[in-house]
Design goal:
21 strands; 28% helix; TIM Barrel; 11 helices; alpha/beta; Lyase, Ornithine Decarboxylase, Chain A, domain 1; 2 domains; 25% strand; binds pyridoxal-5'-phosphate; 434 residues
Length: 434
């Protein structure tokens, strides 16, 4: 434990050993709604978005399209829409949600490697800003559907940069030095496409600007080649998301464990610097930069409140604490560090413990070797940094999904009800099976 205040998100303070989220004691929320439950801080969410925006506004024209899959709780997406964020969507459902929340189509980007015809049709009908294609075959499908509708569609192509010492996600895009040029050439010949975008996204929890710097160099070089050889003018340069967040301990994965992680401020500065330099070198002054942050906007704006169900000592000396929410709710907890602290700390004696979830699965471990005050059944723990890839991936594995509470300064309200047992099989029909 012993997290000092500077290591906590701004929305969390400890007063008299009690955890306060904005102005609301966590114990008040627990008493009203029970555990487990997610708590979202509106203040933290808005602050994260606006800080991110400020950092990148230094570039002339920027569109920040929040990556919906990171956490598509409608209240979160709606708050971000009110703050001016666009939407990066990867399915018909996410596109539908963005439209329902009133995100202007001119701020919606559609990505993903497996778009269905129905999803492409939706995107074309809504006149969104850009569909980023992942393959030549997909470009052909977009062109065909657009032609049937008598429309011209804005498209980009996802490229895969070649970054020394860094494995850009291999499943996505077209290799910058192999297939990408050919794809643009083919797209140019397709009559119903307006080829104006280039997209890259190389990973997540990246705490070093180097992969971005290299990506930008390779993208702008290709943009220059496309213009001089094919006359293609790229308006939207989309460098994706992936920006890492910093926590209390070293974050994972860091590409090189000996390397100091950079802060988001430092990363943004290096990115803007190389952008200006490449843009002016290749005379690409009209470029609009698109960013698709997810984790950096939502990670520390949500926490999970849990109750200790059981404690025991395993083997010789390993103290294990079982809480009532595990990887059914925060699926990536075994891979990404989550700060964990007591909701009320009335015990000054510290112990080193492993924190496990309640699932009957060995992998359900959410924190190992944590120094926490001695815990007993009925105590509460807050699992911080639970905003990214938790709610949208939370499962009904053996239990219904819990409620989500939004804290807005000193008020709190439920923005998603907890599910009931019945909800788990609401859409099943097990009658008349004879
Ligand atoms: C295409 C694309 N854009 C944006 C994101 C958001 O990434 P992050 O949450 O790391 O910022 C992802 C996540 O994997 C992605 O695949």
């Amino acid at each position: 434990m012993n997290l000092d205040a500077s290591m906590l998100p701004d929305s969390i303070i400890i007063i008299n050993n009690e955890l306060i989220i904005d102005d609301v004691p966590a114990i008040t929320i627990i008493k009203k709604y029970g555990t487990p439950l997610f708590v979202v801080s509106k203040k933290q969410l808005v602050q994260n978005y606006n800080k991110f925006h400020e950092r990148f506004m230094k570039f002339t024209k920027v569109l920040i399209a929040y990556s919906y899959k990171t956490n598509y709780l409608p209240s979160i997406c709606s708050i971000l829409n009110q703050e001016g964020a666009g939407a990066e969507v990867v399915s018909g459902f996410e596109l539908f949600l963005a439209m329902k929340l009133g995100v202007p189509p001119s701020k919606i980007i559609f990505n993903g490697p497996g778009k269905t015809d129905q999803e492409i049709t939706m995107a074309i009908d809504y006149d969104i800003a850009l569909i980023n294609a992942d393959s030549i075959e997909e470009l052909e499908r977009i062109n065909k559907i657009a032609s049937e509708k008598g429309k011209i569609v804005n498209v980009g192509i996802r490229i895969k940069p070649n970054i020394p010492g860094f494995l850009a996600w291999p499943k996505f895009g077209l290799d910058v030095d192999r297939w990408a040029f050919e794809a643009y050439e083919k797209a140019l010949a397709m009559e119903n496409l307006n080829v104006i975008g280039m997209h890259a996204h190389v990973g997540t929890q990246i705490c070093n600007s180097q992969p971005y710097v290299e990506t930008i160099r390779q993208m702008t070089e290709l943009m220059h080649r496309l213009y001089t050889k094919l006359g293609i003018k790229i308006k939207y340069m989309d460098i994706g998301g992936g920006f890492g967040v910093s926590g209390y301990e070293p974050l994972y994965p860091i590409e090189d464990q000996n390397e100091e992680p950079e802060t988001l401020d430092e990363m943004a500065e290096s990115i803007i610097k190389v952008l200006y330099s490449c843009i002016s070198h290749y005379k690409l002054s009209e470029t609009i930069l698109i960013l698709e942050p997810g984790r950096s906007i939502v990670s520390d704006a949500t926490l999970l409140l849990t109750m200790v169900e059981a404690t025991k000592t395993v083997g010789k000396n390993t103290k294990t604490v079982v809480v009532d929410g595990g990887i059914n709710l925060i699926q990536f907890a075994p891979y990404y560090y989550h700060r964990i602290l007591p909701v009320i700390n009335n015990n000054s004696k510290l112990e080193t413990v492993d924190i496990c979830g309640p699932l009957c699965m060995q992998s359900d471990v959410i924190g190992v070797n944590r120094k926490l005050p001695t815990l007993k059944r009925g105590d509460y723990l807050a699992v911080l940094d639970s905003g990214a890839y938790s709610l949208s991936l939370s499962q009904q594995f053996i239990r219904p999904r819990p409620p989500v509470i939004l804290v807005n300064w000193n008020t709190h309200k439920s923005v998603r009800l907890g599910e009931s047992f019945e909800d788990i099989f609401r859409y099943d029909d097990f009658s008349d099976l004879d």
